[in-house]
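WARN  no MSA supplied for this record, continuing single-sequence
INFO  ligand: threonylcarbamoyladenylate
INFO  echoing inputs
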Amino acid sequence: MIDTKRWKIAESGKSKEETIAEAAQLLKAGHTVAFPTETVYGLGADATNAEAVAKIFQAKGRPQDNPLIAHVASKDQLLKLVDSLPDYVENLIDAFSPGPITYVLPSNGICAENVTAGLPTVGVRIPSHPVALALLKVCDVPIAAPSANLSGKPSPTTADHVWEDLNGRIAGIVDGGPTGVGVESTIIDCTQETPSILRPGGISKEEIEEIVGKVLVDPALDNGDTKEKPKAPGMKYTHYAPEVPLWLVEGDNARLQKVYQELVDEGKRVGVLANRNTLEKLNVTDQISLGESLEEVAANLYDSLRRFKQGEIDIILCETYPEIGIGQAIMNRLRKAASRYVEK
Ligand code: TXA
Ligand code: MG
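INFO  complex generated
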C-alpha cells in the first residue's frame, strides 16, 4: 500500500502553482500521479523513465502489450518524440491541439520502450485541460498517462472515481473537478498517406475530414465480431465494464419499456440509463438521466455506469444513440461495456 496524496486545486490552502509544483516533483522523482484532462483523468508517470512507467501498469493491472499515450504541453515538445510527420499532421495539430486527439506517429525512441509496448510508433497528445497543461509545462518531460482506472473498469471522470479504483496504489491525485468531454481522445494513426481512426473520441470523424479530406476507420472498430485485429492494441480488451451487467437496447421507447417489463416480471431489479427525454416517457423506478444532447450523454456516461451498484440493481438497460459526431465514441464505448446487445 502506498499513501496516496490528494490535492484539490483552488480549495486546498495552497495555490494552484504550489499544488502543481508538488505533483510535478513526484512525477519527476519517478512516482505515479493522477491528474485531470479534458477527456478523463489520466494516471501519469515520466515517459522517459521505464521504471516509473512500469508502476502505471502495476497500479492499473494493465496488460503489458497495451501501449500508453505520451502527453506533452506543446507542438515543439511533440515533435521531439517523433521521427517524421506526413504534412497533414501539422494541419491536424493546428486545428485540434491542444484538445482530445492522439496522433500515432513513428517513434524516435525518446519514450521508454514500455510506453510504446515495443511498437515502432508512439501515441502523442496535447491535452487542453488547464491543470494538465500547467503540470506538463512544469514537468518538462513527456508524461505517459492511460486513463486512471483499474484495467477493465469505466474511465474516471472525477477524482473520486480515481480514488475508488487506485487509492493505496499510486502516489497522488490532483483533483481538478469533473472532466468536460467525458470520453477519451480520438486516436488517429498518422503513419500512412491517409490517416485512420483507431478509436473514436472527443474529435469526430466529420471534424477531421474537414481538415484532411479522406479519413479511414480501422475495420476492427466497425463492429465487435470482425476477425480484424485492432491497430490500437487496447481496443481488443474488455473495457468500461460496470459492476452490474449492461444491456444495450435498440429501438424506440416502447421497446425499451417492454424489455424492462419482461425483466421486472422475472423478478429482476432493473436500472435504466437514458436521456432525459426518453426517461420522461417511460414508466420505470430506478433511472439515471444522461442529460439531453450527445455532448451531455458523453460527459455523464462513465459516472452513470459507476453509479448503479451490485446488490442494488441486477441489470442496467441503456438506449442506443445516433452515430454522428461524438455519438460514434458513445456507441463505441457502450458496445464495449455491454454484455448483451438486444436487437430490434
Ligand atoms: O483521452 C485520453 O486519451 C486519455 C487521457 C488520460 O489522455 N487516455 C487514454 O489512455 O484513454 P488509455 O491508455 O486508456 O488508452 C490508450 C489507447 C489504448 O487503446 C492503446 O492501445 C492505444 O491508445 N495506443 C497507445 N499508443 C499506441 C500506438 N503507438 N499505436 C496504436 N495504439 C496506441
Ligand atoms: Mg483506458
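The chain is about 35% helix and 20% strand.
INFO  checksum written, moving to next record
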